[in-house]
Design goal:
This protein is an alpha+beta fold. It is built from 24 helices and 26 strands. The structure holds adenosine-5'-diphosphate and magnesium ion. The site of magnesium ion (MG) has 2 residues, from α1.
């Protein structure tokens, strides 16, 4: 059955070989009960481990059923241990967190026996050793003798040809020893039993043959058996062990359940990173849909504007500094520079041609086009203190360059204005004789506007003090007096005020920009409608000053001076209402997407035009939304970086925890190996464990994130009034669960390899 040929075993100690076995010659028959007797340290365990394929001999040969094991691979040894050998140890070596039944089933799991058969066979052997009433107990709920019976049952469940017992009664009292020895004796009737002991009484009482061992050598053999002749063909049934992945996962699942506390903590650690990433994804998802909504709802309402003057940042300033790179130089060196050179302005000259071109644009692109005209209002009023005054409509410099205007024509798009402005009191103008007062965020009105309108300055006003106020717009023929071909404004404000042709204008409402408005579209002050402009233009086109200007295209009728590049004929004509061509245009697209169509349409107009004649448009919505989205991108990147770090940290933590678990379970690994587990099986079990932990961590992280999104949404709703802001798309959630599983698996790969590589002999000796 077994033949040892000059087996030697050296342990390497501090680099030098230490001989534990010095050339063992032994043969064993199929049915005998052999005791190996010898003092402690003589090499009994070493010999048994070599016979059992747990340890490797240094030289010599071990023949199993006549077959040499010199060329055995790891997997052959694993199969041999699993199918042919049953081990019984002095310290029982049961897996403490598994039940009696599971302990016995373990070697059947490793050989891939079905669950049903496993249970039946395990119960049968447990009944044989007299433990049928204890199968669901844990090892620590049993007595020493009972534990050894479990170990024997475990060794027998695979029906091995050889039972190896290393001091099986060493830890038991004499009465229990006797019972165990009787059991082993019975077992030896139909298989080879090799028992190691230092107790000669027990050896003599129960065994058929006693081999004496001393200092690594056989000194006596009571019944040496002849080496087996090769008369009959020897058959070594070395069926490969095969534990399926499913069994590995089920085994790990059982392991995890028996250590609930640790499993939960590990899963918690693993979920931290997942929670981080899930929250980042929820929030950035919320931000993206928020901007999309903003774009389609709010920003879509923003017009593409062609303003009279467009300020653009040109190329960087020419460096005139002799030491351009240096700040705070100490040398006596100063340089001039042009502060305006980095700002370039473009004057849009809106021609009739352009207006016609716009009117031919596909009407599917835009809701409306609104025009601002250059016509300057001439206003007089009766002030609160009873005097007649002229009301300046802009602060300085007229309406050409700079100088803020107090009176402005509002875009002809009430819907859009109302989307950005609240009508605090009164109504939006419904005819040309009504205007609105536009106040700032703090309900303030510019002092000079109040003074200009002739309103007494008070500490505060109510809406009743302001709504219903009137002033008069004076038409050209009343406003201008011709003196020698030059038209000069009259100064008789009373006469102008009382002239029947002057138009009475009433403040009908007060507007204030909305708290969440995207932009301040209107200047504060008086906003009048295009109805008023249209009404006036209709009158002024036939006025004396316009007729005179038409007749003398080279002389400015307002000054008598010739036109120059600063004040052109067109400028003057637009100011006095002789030319209704707009100075600014606002195009309101149907939706955000049509902006590009509109812009492309204007670009076509510019083709072939000189730079000065080109139309430069502004897309405020794009500026706003690109600012927002670049902000969002930045935030997302920063958050994702944090989340990634926490993911890495939690993976490392899982790796460490798995490693600790490997160390902690060294003994268990040794036991599994002695039962025939392959290295692969060990790593599979550990990998399955990390897989399950990663999966749990993923699920846990997603659940926590969903819960955390609730308070986040409450907070966000407080700020921007958007319900359900943060939300995690289901695809992202699934992705994160997979990610968590994979990362944890990867983090556990290294420790599980360590576990698989553990030397089973060393592992078994660990306490
Ligand atoms: P026994 O079981 O007869 O008490 P062992 O087979 O356990 O003896 O040990 C035989 C000898 O080999 C002892 O001297 C022991 O110190 C030594 N030995 C056992 N295992 C190792 C090891 N892993 N490394 C080094 N020496 C060992
Ligand atoms: Mg020993």
């Amino acid at each position: 059955m077994l033949q040892l040929k000059n087996i030697k075993k050296d342990y390497i100690l501090a680099g030098k070989p230490f001989p534990a076995l010095k050339g063992i010659e032994l043969s064993f028959k199929e049915n005998e009960f052999v005791s190996i007797l010898g003092p402690s340290g003589c090499g009994k365990t070493t010999l048994l481990n070599i016979i059992g394929g747990l340890d490797r001999y240094t030289s010599g040969d071990l023949l199993i059923e006549g077959k040499s094991t010199k060329d055995f691979k790891d997997q052959d040894w694993d199969a041999y241990r699993n199918a042919t050998i049953g081990f019984v140890f002095q310290t029982y070596n049961l897996i403490s967190h598994l039940s009696v039944l599971d302990n016995v089933e373990m070697s059947l799991r490793l050989s891939g026996v079905s669950a049903k058969e496993r249970k039946e066979r395990a119960i049968t052997v447990l009944t044989d050793v007299g433990l049928e009433d204890h199968i669901y107990k844990k090892p620590n709920q049993l007595s020493g003798g009972q534990m050894q019976r479990v170990a024997i049952a475990r060794a027998l469940v695979n029906n091995p040809k050889i039972l190896l017992a290393d001091e099986p009664t060493g830890a038991l009292d004499s009465e229990t020893s006797e019972q165990i020895m009787k059991l082993i004796e019975k077992i030896s009737k139909d298989r080879l039993v090799i028992m190691v002991t230092h107790n000669s009484e027990i050896a003599e009482a129960h065994s058929d043959r006693i081999v004496h061992l001393l200092d690594g050598l056989v000194t006596a053999d009571s019944r040496p058996s002849e080496p087996v002749k090769k008369e009959r063909e020897q058959k070594l049934e070395n069926k490969k062990t095969a534990m399926s992945y499913m069994t590995a996962i089920k085994t790990s699942f059982k392991n995890l359940l028996t250590k609930k506390g640790r499993t939960i903590i590990t899963a918690l650690a693993g979920s931290i990173g997942i929670i981080g990433i899930a929250l980042v994804l929820s929030i950035s998802n919320g931000m993206t849909s928020y901007t999309n909504n903003l774009q389609s709802d709010t920003l879509a309402g923003f017009p593409i504007t062609v303003d009279q003057t467009v300020v653009a940042f040109g190329p960087p300033e020419e460096v005139t500094n002799p030491r351009p790179d240096l700040e705070f130089i100490e040398d006596d060196l100063f340089a001039p520079y042009d502060s305006d050179s980095s700002l370039t302005t473009h004057e849009n000259i809106i021609t009739d041609e352009f207006i016609t071109y716009l009117s031919q644009m596909n009407t599917d692109f835009y809701n409306s086009i609104s025009y601002t005209r250059g016509l300057k209002l001439e206003v007089v009023n009766l002030s609160d203190n009873g005097s007649y005054i002229s009301v300046p409509t802009s602060s300085s410099g007229g309406s050409f360059f700079g100088g803020s205007s107090y009176f402005n024509e509002m875009p002809n798009n009430q819907t859009f204005i109302e989307s950005q402005y609240d009508i605090l009191y009164g109504t939006y103008p419904t005819d040309y004789q009504n205007v609105v007062l536009i106040v700032d965020e703090r309900n303030r009105i510019d002092l000079s506007l109040l003074e200009n309108l002739g309103i007494n300055i008070e500490d505060d006003y109510t809406s009743q003090d302001l709504i219903g106020r009137t002033f008069k717009v004076v038409i050209n023929d009343v406003y201008y007096e011709e003196v020698g071909g030059v038209f000069i404004p009259s100064t008789d404000y009373q006469a102008m005020y009382n002239n029947a042709e002057s138009i009475t204008i009433t403040i009908s409402g007060i507007l204030r920009v909305k708290e969440d408005a995207s932009t301040e579209l209107l200047d504060t002050g008086i906003g009048y409608t295009s109805m008023l402009t249209d009404h006036l233009l209709n009158i002024e086109k036939d006025s004396d000053v316009v007729t005179a200007q038409l007749a003398t295209p080279n002389t400015n009728v307002l000054t008598g001076a010739p036109f120059n590049f600063q004040i052109t004929y067109d400028d003057v004509m637009r100011t006095i209402g002789g030319d209704s061509t707009p100075v600014a245009v606002q195009i309101y697209p149907i939706s955000f997407d049509y902006k590009d169509e509109i812009k492309a349409y204007i670009d076509v107009f510019n083709i072939g035009l000189d730079e000065v004649d080109q139309i430069v448009y502004t897309d405020l919505a794009e500026t706003i939304s690109s600012t927002i989205s670049s902000l969002i991108n930045t935030i997302t990147i920063i958050l994702a970086a944090f989340a990634a770090i926490s993911l890495v940290v939690s993976s490392v933590m899982i790796g460490i925890i798995t490693y600790v678990s490997v160390v902690e379970r060294t003994k268990e690994i040794g036991i599994m190996r002695s039962l025939g587990a392959r290295k692969k099986d060990i790593s599979r079990i550990f990998n399955a464990e990390t897989l399950l932990i990663g999966f749990t961590a993923g699920i846990f992280g997603i659940v926590v994130s969903f819960l955390l999104n609730i308070p986040i949404n409450l907070i966000v709703e407080n700020f921007i009034d958007v319900p359900g802001f943060a939300s995690l798309p289901i695809t992202n959630a699934l992705f994160l669960i997979v990610l968590s599983t994979l990362l944890t698996l990867i983090a556990g790969l290294f420790p599980s390899r360590i576990a698989a590589k553990r030397d089973p002999v060393v592992a078994l000796r660990t306490e």
